[in-house]
Specification:
This protein has 14 helices and 37 strands. It has 687 residues and is of the alpha+beta class. Residues 260-352 form the Transglutaminase-like domain.
């Protein structure tokens, strides 16, 4: 090598095209492992003679930890390690094709070259990622359309609401924007695992199973000053309300800008969305999954206990809970530790719910293992299994005596309509049957028994479990709440309590009813309404009782989750109590987006957002938040003047799209009466 520093041409465009990394906006080479990339450098005399390349990563590179590779020019690509094949030479430059192994450690590498006995010359750095397009990689995904969706797609849809009323909102993952890749690399370098033993941590970074677990811990702030701080109190002073975010970019950028202080605040979908961004960015195929009526079994007995007082109020007793919905992740990779049938989708959960191995991390749990009740397999099988399979016990609790009485138990209450976004379309796909056998089928009960047995719950006497005679007692009446009319914020809430006498003699029933505003986790926040009635039901009679909760009654009490729990505890004279309950999620009013004209790359296009105030009071403090990868940089925030009753606002702003193709624009509108009205629109950008 001549004394001058060699200059390197990284062939950024060509390599990025071959490696599916064109979407990154970077001056640095970003490639995927197990696949060749080409570089040209000058300053070499007789390049075919004894050139030695050195690729190294991490703080103390070594061959033993596979973080250092030295390799010379060879005629063919090595099956095992790194290799370099000479493509062409001229008088003082050489074009070389470099290949990394399928199981190389991912991260930022330093590349240098040495000729003869001279000291190595630095060629620069490049970033190596997982390669789902390559059949030798642990994350290989044979279906190309799935690779496009689960690695390259920057827009997602997250499902929420409740099992009776599924809603959805868009999310901008933005894994290729700005500095996100560098932030993802810093997340790995700030984990507890790295801090305790950097050399070992970096050497494990070839393994998606290891990185998935580490990153599930790092996305929440517990233990390690990770990215997002959770808050389920209903009060979000000093930070942003979790439901106000529309993308991961702003969260990850804020974390970095603040000197890596946790960003306030997140709830389950925020943790899941940020983890999706990080894993897609690194090349691990990942999606968000929503489980409705999701169990949080804190004590590991595959049972969730809920307590109610005599008035029908849901009590905060015990750590178990059932959430209206919970969002986690699935990532796609092989499970060499468990065997081929457990490969494929793996469950990861970054929401800090329970500790695992002393820190708040969860997974990867093989989805196949969960379906088959193999809860003893790594990692966190019992917790995930309970989320979709726990039995529910409803108790009446008397705080004066401490006595609890079973109201009823249900094995079909938990987990419904497990949902994810379709590949290549903005639709919902139901994946419940990938998690469990049909509810109520013999196979489903067998799997549940198998799981209980593996956890040693079969043989243990459980003093808190209901007695057989309690479970076998049959109620005299049945009840349900029916919705009459629309479920919209700003409108009165109309329900019907339907009670039916199942017996052939008359029954007198005293009914205590309450309605509380809740969070989506069903945590009670404010009481909205209470009432009690006494009714007599003739033999086999069904009666309906209308309930009206006026908007002014609930308006001040509603949380930004817009959820209300209505319960009726029915005391049947001479019989057992019957609990009737319903969780209601109200819809926000609509907001409308129109793109005025054609959207072209690097040309201004005007967008109009319209909102009509549906209530008969003025709304103030109106703010519009807009974002969308390749449509605008960062998040645009617009203040809108107050709107009188029934008044329509129209706000216009300009976009300059930076890339062609189908892009998604996300809009979030908030005011003092309505929080976080979200919508999205697909914008087809042409060249």
């Amino acid at each position: 090598i001549a004394a001058t520093q060699p200059s390197t041409n990284w062939h950024l465009k060509e390599n990025a095209r071959e490696h599916h990394t064109s979407k990154f906006s970077s001056e640095e080479l970003i490639v995927r492992r197990g696949q060749a990339f080409t570089i040209t450098f000058n300053g070499t005399e007789r390049p075919e003679q004894n050139l030695i390349f050195i690729a190294e990563t991490g703080p103390k590179p070594s061959k033993a930890t596979k973080t250092l590779a030295t390799f010379g020019i060879s005629s063919t690509v090595s099956k095992e390690g790194w290799s370099a094949v000479l493509q062409s030479t001229s008088s003082n430059s050489a074009s070389i094709s470099i290949s990394s192994p399928h199981n190389a450690v991912i991260g930022r590498y330093r590349l240098s070259v040495q000729s003869g006995s001279s000291s190595p010359a630095n060629l620069g750095t490049f970033v190596l990622l997982f390669n789902p397009w390559s059949s030798g990689d642990d994350v290989f995904m044979p279906n190309k359309a799935e690779c496009e969706e689960y690695v390259l797609e920057e827009f997602g849809i997250i499902f929420a609401g409740n099992k009776n009323h599924i809603s959805s909102f868009g999310w901008n993952f933005g894994q290729f924007q700005g500095d996100i890749l560098n932030i993802c690399l810093s997340i790995m370098d700030r984990s507890l695992y790295y801090r305790q033993d950097p050399v070992t941590d970096v050497s494990h970074r070839h393994d998606p199973r290891y990185l998935g677990r580490v990153l599930s811990a790092m996305v929440n702030a517990n233990d390690d000053q990770g990215v997002v701080l959770g808050n389920w109190s209903g009060k979000y002073e000093g930070g942003k309300n979790p439901s106000s975010w529309t993308g991961s970019g702003e969260i990850l950028q804020s974390w970095k800008k603040s000197g890596f202080k946790p960003v306030k605040y997140g709830q389950c979908w925020v943790f899941a969305a940020v983890l999706t961004t990080v894993l897609r960015c690194l090349g691990i195929p990942t999606r968000t999954i929503t489980n409705f009526s999701s169990a949080h079994d804190a004590d590991g007995n595959l049972r969730v206990d809920e307590f109610y007082d005599a008035e029908g109020n849901h009590l905060e007793r015990g750590a178990d809970s059932v959430w209206n919905f919970h969002v986690w992740n699935e990532s796609w990779f092989t499970r060499n530790d468990l065997g081929p049938s457990y490969s494929g989708w793996q469950i990861l959960d970054a929401t800090p719910q329970e500790e695992s191995g002393g820190i708040y991390q969860c997974g990867p749990a093989s989805r196949h293992a969960i379906k088959e009740g193999e809860v003893d397999l790594d990692y966190d099988g019992p917790f995930v299994f309970a989320e979709v399979n726990a039995d529910c016990m409803y108790w009446n609790y008397d705080s004066a005596t401490g006595k609890k009485t079973l109201i009823f138990s249900k094995s079909t209450e938990i987990s419904d309509s497990i949902s994810t976004k379709a590949v290549g379309r903005d639709d919902r796909v139901d994946v419940t049957s990938d998690y469990k056998y049909e509810e109520g089928s013999a196979k489903e009960r067998d799997v549940f028994k198998k799981a209980r047995k593996k956890l040693g719950l079969e043989d243990k006497f459980d003093p808190t479990a209901p007695k057989r005679e309690e479970i076998e007692q049959k109620p005299d009446i049945s009840g349900k709440f029916k919705v009459a009319g629309s479920l919209e914020v700003g409108k009165d809430l109309n329900l019907l309590l339907v009670l039916e006498n199942l017996q052939s003699d008359a029954k007198t029933v005293n009914v205590n009813m309450t309605a509380w505003s809740t969070l989506y986790t069903r945590r009670r926040v404010n009481q909205i309404w209470k009432d009690s009635i006494s009714v007599t039901l003739a033999p086999k009679e069904e009666k309906q009782f209308p309930i009206k909760i006026k908007y002014p009654e609930y308006q001040q009490q509603l949380t930004t989750d817009k959820t209300i729990q209505v319960t009726a505890l029915c005391h049947v004279e001479g019989g057992i109590q019957v609990l009737v309950k319903r969780n209601i999620t109200l819809d926000n009013p609509a907001i409308d987006i129109r793109v005025l004209g054609e959207a072209k790359v690097n040309k201004e296009v005007v967008v109009e957002v319209a909102f009509t105030n549906p209530i008969d009071v003025e709304v103030k403090d109106c703010v519009l938040q807009v974002e969308g990868s390749d449509l605008l940089q960062g998040v645009l925030e617009l203040r809108i003047p107050p709107l009188k009753a029934s008044e329509k606002s129209s706000t216009k702003f300009k976009l300059i799209p930076s890339e062609a193709g189908p892009k998604h624009l996300l809009v979030n509108f908030s005011c003092d009466q309505f929080a976080d009205i979200k919508t999205f629109k697909m914008v087809n950008v042409i060249n």
